[in-house]
Amino acid sequence: MSVPRSLHTATTLPNGLVLVVGGQGSTGGAMSSAEIYDESNNSWSPAQPMNAARMDHTATLLSNGLVLVTGGVAADNFTVHSSAEIYDHQTNSWSPAGFMSVPRAYHAATSVPDGRVLITGGLNRQGVLASTELYNFPGTWSPAGLMSVPRLKHTATALGNGRVLVAGGHAFASAHSSAEYYDQIVGWQPAGVLNTGRTDHAAVLLQNGRVLVIGGAIAPFYGQGHLGSAEIFSSTANRWVSAPGMAFARIWPTLTKLPNGQVLAAGGYASPNTHNSAEIFSPYPPPLPP
Questions:
Q1: pLDDT tens column, 253-262
Q2: Rounded to two decimals, what is the model's pTM?
Q3: In CATH, what class is 1-146?
């Protein structure tokens, strides 16, 4: 890339290019710069920078092909953004997308079937948030109720039935074992209890409609309590069951569903080392009955 980055986002665009946005630079501050990766020629090219410098933000592909970026920590490392902006890859331009009800960083953003984006939890200078809200293009925001507990560094996974599953995270104490889902009709409902409370983990929707959760930590103190365990949520049974654990404990891994239905877990950290290892999970035969 043109500059070193961490705490950034990467979003695959409809044309197959990948938009990389913001993050923390080598000097420790948030950046506004953006760039595009083209797999066809293995090259990077600059993109128009955002209107604001951000790290620990979210970036979500909308159903119209635009990318919504929300919140994050500002360049001074003390301010949290409530602003949002939209990237249009066809014009290589950014435009304002209104303001969330509160500033948020370390939150989650997930597309829902009607094209809106659900924003959940996070952190600002007032504390950890239980509030949620919905973004509707081109720039309107509406409340989406309160989660059962405040959460940051949780996962939010869109289910095939139109719901969004929120799992784990923390509020500066032990990691949450609770999970809940958002239903556009009835609001927030409980979604069982994780076998292990976890934060800084990863989650992915499997081809069989269940959700795999891996790794993370049992508390928001990154020198200990790292997890190699995994578990699976069934929305039909509304419960969690253990899955085979990874070979290595990991926080902050990536978890990607492959075309063949298997799942790739890559990288992450487990004190005192950052991983370069990767592992494959095969969900077949499924650990829960159909």
A1: 989 988 888 9
A2: 0.93
A3: mainly beta
